[in-house]
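Sequence in, structure out.
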Amino acid sequence: MSNSVAKIVDRHLQIWNTRNAADRVTGIPSIYAEDVVIGEPAAWLSGFAGIEYAIKAVQAQMPGMDLAVTGPIQTTGDMSTYSWALAGKEGNPVVKGRDVITVKHERITSLYIFFDT
């Protein structure tokens, strides 16, 4: 796994865990490509506004929860995948899943979110 991919994933999750909207909006362009695509079972979004919309929706549905990587990051070419959990301060996950991201020029160009059932 590339150390730069690990840093990108870390910054990506930091943005998703940021509660302050102004800080998120300022940080999004440093992590995501302007035309980033976000795909998940219930939504298909794109661009900086799409990322912000997705983050706000998760935070509204599950306030006080944080995302964390729960397994190794695997990379093939420009695609990487890792498992994650969304949990509160007590550490009990309420949602688990897997992301598949594409990284080009140190920016995430696509983010596909899969939920464990």
